[in-house]
Write a structure and sequence with these properties.
7 helices; 243 residues; five-stranded antiparallel beta sheet; alpha/beta; five-stranded parallel beta sheet; 31% helix
Amino acid sequence: MLRVLAVDDEVPALSELAFLLRQDARVEHVSTATDGGAALHDMVQMIADGERLDGVFLDVRMPGLDGLDLARLIGGFPTPPRLVFVSAHDCAVQAFELEAVDYLLKPVRPERLAEAVRRLSAAVTPPGAEEEDLETIPVELGGRTKFVARQDVCYAEAHGDYVRLHTAGAVYLVRMSLAALERRWAGAGFVRAHRSTLVNARHVSELRFDAGRVVLEVGGETLPVSRRHTRQVREQLVRQFRP
């Protein structure tokens, strides 16, 4: 679970960022600061109190001590937190030079922030450490944003410019391509079973031949496996259930 600090001199933007971070199940605690000086003071106090700080979501352009200067000071800490820059301006080169985990453009989209949290979590997790799968994906439901746990998705299905996420109890529509979702969830147990289907191996209860083709039982549904993807699916299932 992550403990983070969000820094932005624009109060509405800071409030929105803090709200979205608090909705993410991977984030344990969110502190906020409205300028670089206050953020630096808070971080020094956290160190003195022995509190853990995993990451800083940092606006770039602020009056006084700006985000880039603050980032350089943070780099001198004995155990510096990882950085995620958040800005309405392009500072990708500076972010790279300061070894930031990610760089977000305002206005911050919930799905893009979720990816930044994933990268931050991966950056602060010790090599070889086992971490519970708490990745979430935001979906819009009648003016509300619901965060669906990745581990609850049985399979994803391409639907034009959207993807349908099938869980045990509901189907959600997300505006992104299946290829983009496959890249995002690479290494998380999802495998392409068909050009239009991405399957969560954890939810596969059966693989069998039916009328000369391979099919999977996934979350109570029968899904076909294309010839092109059959070998990949079988290898993924073997890895998934190998003791």
